[in-house]
């Protein structure tokens, strides 16, 4: 059972109990005040005792009704019906019925929220039989009238009709709630899958950004020879990098002090940094962490490129309402020309700009040669809450369910209750045609509402013309009933015309609904009063009106209740969805981080551990070479992007750019057409090239060839160190050849339909193909 259905059952039960309390108290106390009871003393005692039981029954039911509570309630209602000899009016007749049958009718209307259909039929029959028996005991001479049809129709048949209609209303609205739950759950599943996918992408990007800012920067500095001997700050930095490799610490939406976090970042850099601006600034913790990571990346770039040991970090608020947080990192170093930065550089685009974009902010870099660099990061201090479309879904389903219930009730009342009255009293009306015209008009209006509901539309601009038509038809029908028969059995339109009004005003404001419904009754009573004596006495008219009007008002109030329930249950559904989504995201991200760490544990982790505990010397050539290789592999990892036209070339160019920054000249050429390659295949193909670019002692020639479904990546370089073995796998075969002091490594991948390797591949990739000038021109 979903949150919408649970909310409906809870609120529906509460509302039905309130309806029972109000109506029973109204009809019973009015009867006492008007003094119509045959035995006022015993009648007063019965009223007070039963009202006390009603209150007890409501409280116990709301707290969780025991099984015996409903049977006891039915027994007491039956006992009250059998004791009508005290409570019935002195001039009891079928038209002047006492308050007990009316109270029993509204009580059984509330039972669909408490018992199943079989139990509902049984207890309704028990109450009706007890009412007939009590009427017979109270008025023995009226026994035949009490069971005669159609004389007994006004109360007994109406009681059965109300129970059936109430059960139908309950089933239709509950079915709508269940359907709303299904739609909400389906939407939640779609959003959950999208949230998991988005979280995985965001976590992957943030992990890569953190990896770039930490392990990659550390290994790149060691590999490039920036650090030539063991340093305490390097050991501390390597230790922190190991923590990041295990996966970012989960951050909730709680608040954190950005300035305190930046103070910690500044304290772990070898630079002399001046932190200025706001002394404290609280914001969402996840955004503060993002700004902290961006600041660390900017300071790392100062260490590596700026040629200065000083920097300044400024924190401030911007915007008209100071709701934008700004962090600026400024140095007075050598600077650079941003237009000349390679598109394959991950730092600015991936680590800074991408990170700020993920939290709804932005990052900009201002720099020029000789004038230093300023990195500006902005993000909103608050994040607006997401819109909740569950409210519209639930409200629409509730309205449709209630509208169909009202349509069915109106048609049942018109066809099974009112039409028999009209046909049985045909000779009384003056003229009969007016009655049939009114009946036909009510049916057509109901059909119109049914069609609009079926199409998923509202009555809209037709509401008030139709309301006016209904009131006019009601006045026409009342005028055709002789004055002495008004409010009696032949007056079929009295009260029941209000159901058509209810149908047209289900989505109206409460005051409008009550006002128009009351107007329909006042018009009828005014016509009756002007006509003279009516079929019912004033007390009987009050009782009859209360029992019908209460049910109609109940439906209108249910419409209001359901609109409010849509908002509250949407909030519950959203909260449950957020919990489930958070759990699913956490499980998936945890697994992703375990997988990532496992991939790095054999290569990067030992290097960082050695740098952190001092067992590895950053000045040792073997250590520097290993750090350079791992930094190059991470550079390839950062460059992996399936959206670029040729991911293989994109990744290789990123590694070439890193080698050139370290002073290694690279001649690059590519030939032929290449099919799309999976990520793992691209990693196998480029592994040897990445190693060669990171360890080369001189010029490197790199060639990529695609021919006949085969892709080959070959690299020729001066052998700078002992060649490591490269394992085959994923359809990739790697061969290594030494020719004097030159090393030739070739990695080839063949598609499933390729039977032999293209001859042009061997010719273009062989060590003897030493056309460096052509390669450089191609580059």
3D structure, described in words:
The chain has a domain at 643-778: Histidine kinase-like ATPase, C-terminal domain (Heat Shock Protein 90). Helices cover 62% and strands 11% of the residues. Residues 143-153 and 754-779 have low confidence and may be disordered. It has 24 helices and 12 strands. It is elongated, with a radius of gyration of 42 Å. The protein has helices spanning 3-34, 40-62, 69-82, 84-87, 99-110, 117-138, 143-147, 153-223, 232-245, 258-267, 285-306, 346-358, 390-424, 432-454, 463-479, 498-504, 510-531, 538-601, 604-613, 621-639, 647-661, 679-695, 759-765, 772-778, and strands spanning 255-257, 272-277, 282-284, 310-318, 324-331, 362-367, 373-380, 666-672, 700-707, 710-718, 732-739, 742-750. InterPro entries: HATPase_C_sf, HATPase_dom, Sensor_HK_TwoCompSys. GO terms for molecular function: ATP binding. It comes from Plantactinospora sonchi.
